[in-house]
Amino acid sequence: MSSYPIIASITQDIMISAAVDGKVERVILMAGNIMSLDEIVKQLRKKNKQIYVHVEMVGGIGRDASVIEYLAEMFDIDGIVTTKSNMVVAAKQVGIKSIQRVFAIDSAAVETAIRMIQHCEPDEVELMPGLMPRIIREFKQRIGQPLIAGGLIRNQEEIDTAFRSGASYVSIGNPDFWNDFVTVSMPKQPSSQK
Questions:
Q1: Are 78 and 52 in contact (CB under 8 A)?
Q2: Helix-helix angle 107-120:85-94, to 10 degrees
Q3: pTM of the model
Q4: Rounded to a whole number, what is the distance in angstroms from the first to the last CA of the chain?
Q5: Please, what is the average pLDDT of the chain?
């Protein structure tokens, strides 16, 4: 796990400088467009940030597998975030990481998401909304990938609850949680018994 397990969710261009200057090591980029992507990536790379581009949210990015190869070659991103299984497969084919974003809106959606994750095997899974401790625990028990809790998380208590429930990371769009002034309260790791 990262030494700072908060992932910056950049949803607006004005948030980029906060992510660049913040303590976060990873960003999910949902702002900008294909024309501004090169400059955004350069800014984030100067501070050694890991960059995951949400392919359905950044403007001007196509919806087919060839766009993943283009992003990997032209921008040297670390990975993608997507809701689409075919994009996860495309990321594997070009050698970048994938985060599959799933929405737990009801029991049927949870079961469909689990099957999809088991079938396409993304590197990580982002569960939204991230405010459901029981669902986080159940997901974590059923998947092998690191689990990111994201969406609707607004304060320290909600971050702590997500971690206590089994989340490996929390993605959050509030820049106050991206800097050196916030201490994330991590759960105690169980000691190994021999």
A1: yes
A2: 20
A3: 0.92
A4: 23
A5: 92
For the stretch 124-159, pLDDT in tens is 999 999 999 999 999 999 999 999 999 999 999 999
Quote the CA–CA distance of 34 and 26 in Å, as a whole number: 20
For 49-94, what is each residue's pLDDT tens digit?
999 999 999 999 988 889 999 999 999 999 999 999 999 999 999 9
The model's confidence at residue 188, banded by pLDDT at 50, 70 and 90, is low
Alpha-carbon distances, residue 32 vs 48, 79, 113, 136, 144 (angstroms): 19, 16, 28, 30, 32
Domains and their CATH numbers in the chain: 2-179 (3.20.20.70)
Three-state SS for the chain is CCCCCEEEEECCHHHHHHHHHCCCCEEEECCCECCCHHHHHHHHHHCCCEEEEECCCCECCCCCCHHHHHHHHHHCCCEEEECCHHHHHHHHHHCCEEEEEEECCCHHHHHHHHHHHHHHCCCEEEEECCCCHHHHHHHHHHCCCCEEEECCCCCHHHHHHHHHCCCCEEEECCHHHHCCCCCCCCCCCCCCCC
